[in-house]
Amino acid sequence: MKKILPLLLYFFSLNFSAQKISSAKWSDLFSYNNVLAIREDSGKLIAATENGIFFYTPATGEITKLSKANGLHEVKISAFDYNPATKFGLVGYKNGSLDVITPEGITYVVDIPIATGYSGDKKINHISITGNLAVISVGYGVSVFRLDKKEFGDSAFFINSGTYQASREAVIKDNIVYAATSTGLKKHEMNVTFPIYTTWETAAGGDFTQIAKGDILAYANTNMVKYGDGSTFSTLPQRFSNVQDVVVTAQNIIVADLNAVSVFGITGNLIKSYSTAEQLNTGFFYFSKIYAGTKVSGILNENGDVLKPDGPYDNTSYKISLLDDKLYVSTGNRTNRYNDASPNAKNLGFYYFTGSEWIYPTFFVNSSLGFNVMDVVANPSDMTEVFFTNYIPTGSQGVYRMKYDPSRKDFEVKKVYTTGKDFYHGRPLGLAYDKKNNLFGTVAYLDIENTAGNSGMMAYDKSSDSFSYKTLKMGTGVQKPLISDGYIWIPLPRDAALAAVNYKGTSSVLDDDIYFVRKTAGLPASSEGIISVAMDRSGDLWIGTDSGVRILSSAVSNIQNDPSVNPIIIEENSVGEELFRDSSILQIEVDSGNQKWISISEGGVFYLNSTGEKTINRFTKENSPLPTNSVTDIKVDSKTGKVYFVTLDGVVVYQGDVLEVTENFGDVLVYPNPVVYAQYKGNVRIRGLAAKTNIRITDAAGNLVHQAVARGGSYEWNLTNHRGVRVASGIYFVLMTNEDGTDTATAKIAVVN
């Protein structure tokens, strides 16, 4: 068991302090649509969703949220329960770990007992809290967890005919554990023989999916709910189509069917019901009102009001586009070395953030087509016009042009552009606009010019409302293009090569010249493909392969002249080592200070200085709110300094320190300020600096205590003087000049030790 630094919180006051993996610099763009469980305490409804928990106060309408960005330790919640009497909550995850939430903090538990020889799913199926005890259902039985001690007690591993049997749900009532399984309702007193499965009794035969307890016990299969005292049971008079959840309170039995919530008294009398058009996971009854927990719309009350934090339709994400304050998130994916479409089972398209709210096009909800949207971009000259690529082997493959109607808050498809002769060919992937608002894209297995399906590119002609195509005459697969300095740079993920297309500033592809960076130019010998590229502010092209990073210096001037690329060599224990050798480079992003953000497959994100020789920071799922260690896209908003990290399990945002950097100063900000040691022990950050800034820090008497040269628009001071000793309490003056001395800035820092 591993305890993270306590939050010093009272759970439902929602005043969360920083933890090891979260801070005020992080926020989430998670979806809170898929409500798995609803509980209540002190006038707040508590809803557990796929990637976080939200709190709704019916009296005021206030909604707040808790996720990995501000307290939790994981994503992919699969079970939740809360005891209002003890203020203890327990969150279970699909990977088998737990978060224990108490008034003293949040503790991460990873050492859940696992049955010997069990190799199946570790998902936490269900959690039920009784006093200071919780019974946890998993794929191999049940475990009892002591909340006050944050440790496990006995476990019972269900072995039926030599194979492990799952406990779907389980509860504790009167010192007896009842478990719903596929072979009956099992029960056992919590005594010395509890761990021995052969001593468990079958209280009722059948295939049961749900169980809940309050003053009474209730359990269910697909169509029927029984209730009673644990020894004798009656059947609710109503038949159900597909029971999703059963909740028992002091006065009620709440049954969530596929599309309706029904509330019964504890004697089985129907009190009221609420039908919805939504698929449901759960339901709750509070102050004589029904709240339905849906799969895709958060909580619905009886008025049909949607209650949830604003967020995208789903957590599945792949690429993100930024345009002013608007966001566009695609949800597609590929397998088999960037070759085959891997559409999400939910058949998602893209999500759109208007700058104030999230929109999910009804086209994706209502259409019978298949979707594997790899990229979506908006027209910079008309942001209501959007293009997206659908990379999928069905009749829906192609490029789609849509129009956004702000009055309806929805999109309408205006045209679909077929990109191939059949489903195998013409797989559209990435799109990009140049500075003249010309739209270009990349196509895998392009079937033109008598080729067998080479990688290719496409260009949109506004006047004819059509795309023209050009084969690269090599390779098959492609990645999203980068347009920079008059060239379209196209990574080829299934070939150790990069295409550079001189498109001559026009939307015509007929006269374009194509150049290549091949393996003979110095790409890694083990590389089988190039995955990502980025142009830095010095004109050097950073090339991410499946086996490391290479740099094409002065890319535009060298691409036509037998170019060569070089690795970045860093010194490790006085020995030169190649940066990211044998690592798969998923994405490279350059901020306005010329620092590099680089994501590694299964390795998190590295933040490097301009040359790549120094690591400024590294974020992983273990030390940050990242949902996974494979970040599929990174985007930096130079206006706000925000860094967007996109994963297949959701999007999180880091508030960086680098805004738009020029040769002169921007709005210089020092934070935190004042620096009170009892409250904060980190570095002081200064942002809004010039591209190169000379810094001198003096005390109130004018004595120099620190000096440095900052590059990239920001600087951190560790509050030590030139001897490495922490400075005394007092006021310190920061005197700054840009590189040529034509611009200056000053600031004051108050230090309280």
TrEMBL record:
Residues 47-191 form the PorZ N-terminal beta-propeller domain. Transmembrane segments: none annotated. SUPFAM superfamilies: Calcium-dependent phosphotriesterase (SSF63829), NHL repeat (SSF101898). It holds the Pfam family PorZ_N_b_propeller. InterPro entries: PorZ_N (IPR048954), Secre_tail (IPR026444), WD40/YVTN_repeat-like_dom_sf (IPR015943). Keywords: Signal. Residues 1-18 form the signal peptide. This is PorZ N-terminal beta-propeller domain-containing protein.
